[in-house]
From TrEMBL:
Residues 104-248 form the Lysosome-associated membrane glycoprotein 2-like luminal domain. This is Lysosome-associated membrane glycoprotein 2-like. Residues 92-103 have a biased composition (Pro residues). Residues 1-91 have a biased composition (Low complexity). It is a single-pass type I membrane protein. The gene is LOC107744542. Residues 1-108 are annotated as: Disordered. The keyword Hydrolase does not apply. Disulfide bonds join 222-259. The chain crosses the membrane at residues 266-289. One of its GO terms (cellular component) is plasma membrane.
Length: 301
């Protein structure tokens, strides 16, 4: 028995063809399925042929490049930012500071009796600090003796008890009044008037002062800077001060009575004396202690 078996490949696979076309403008999805299923052909040339059935799932999908698709695609072009956000804090600009006022020029002033005899001499640099009101700040001005408009005048106390010195410029007018009581002179009154640039005028005076005291026939001198509170709104600063309002001789200052800050002649002797006294005390204490230890070393028999 001869069995001839010929097995032909079965050309009856199950083909599934899916064609999807997406048109760009309408953005709609069309699902078109064209399925072509061929009949299963089995050819058997023998009594028993083992059919071979192959299932082919072939999907032919043609997708055209859509112009509009549901893609979460973001095309962004990032340019270098021109504005940078920063949390840095710029320090505030400090207010401008007012430069300190320089020391005033020292001027020499004199008052003559009958336009011949000098009866009052003064040498000083004058600086005034004042404020217009309680809430305002102090302003500082110097009296400039080199200005051409400066006026010097006054009165002498020949036979009287008062002498005065008047100094005047475009901005400042100051009047000093000296009194003689029991052959002691002192400055007992001062009046100041200042013409400000804004048109205001500052005025202050004190008629109950007791400054620059010395004996009549001598002068008062204080070379170092001195500050005097004339009123609660006016302070007077003097530099290289020397005044003699009475008994001027030969147009020169007489023997000067120096202020306490200038009088250093007694300071050095006082310091040296105190040091010597302290040394003597230390020596005496050491001597007493030494003597007591010496007595302890001996015993009475």
């Amino acid at each position: 028995t001869t069995t001839k078996s010929t097995t032909e490949p079965t050309t009856t696979p199950h083909h599934t063809t899916t064609k999807s076309t997406t048109e760009p403008p309408t953005t709609m999805h069309h699902n078109t399925t064209n399925s072509t299923t061929e009949l299963l052909h089995t050819t058997t040339k023998s009594t028993t042929e083992a059919p071979t059935t192959m299932h082919h799932n072939t999907t032919n999908s043609t997708t055209e490049a859509p112009t509009t698709m549901h893609h979460n695609t973001t095309n962004s072009t990032t340019e270098a930012p021109t504005t940078t956000h920063s949390n840095a804090t710029t320090a505030p600009t400090p207010p401008p500071t007012t430069p300190p006022v320089p020391n005033p020029t020292v001027g020499n002033y004199s008052v003559k009796s009958d336009n011949v005899t000098v009866c009052l001499l003064a040498k000083m640099g004058l600086q005034f600090s004042f404020k217009m009101s309680e809430n305002s700040s102090f302003q500082t001005l110097n009296f400039d003796p080199s200005a051409n408009v400066t006026e010097v005048s006054g009165t002498c106390g020949s036979g009287g008890n008062d002498s005065s010195l008047l100094l005047k410029s475009d901005e400042i007018t100051v009047h000093f009044v000296f009194t003689n009581v029991s052959q002691k002179f002192r400055l007992h009154a001062l009046t100041l008037s200042v013409n400000l640039e804004n048109g205001n005028v500052f005025n202050a005076s004190n008629n109950n002062l007791s400054l620059w005291e010395a004996s009549v026939g001598s002068s008062y001198m204080c070379r170092k800077e001195q500050s005097y509170n004339i009123t609660d709104k006016l302070t007077l600063n003097t530099f290289q001060l020397q005044v003699q309002p009475f008994a001027v001789q030969n147009n020169k200052f007489n023997t000067a009575h120096e202020c306490s800050m200038d009088d250093t002649s007694l300071l050095i002797p006082i310091i040296v004396g105190a040091a010597l006294a302290g040394l003597i005390v230390i020596v005496m204490i050491a001597y007493v202690i030494g003597r007591r230890r010496t007595y302890v070393g001996y015993q009475t028999l």
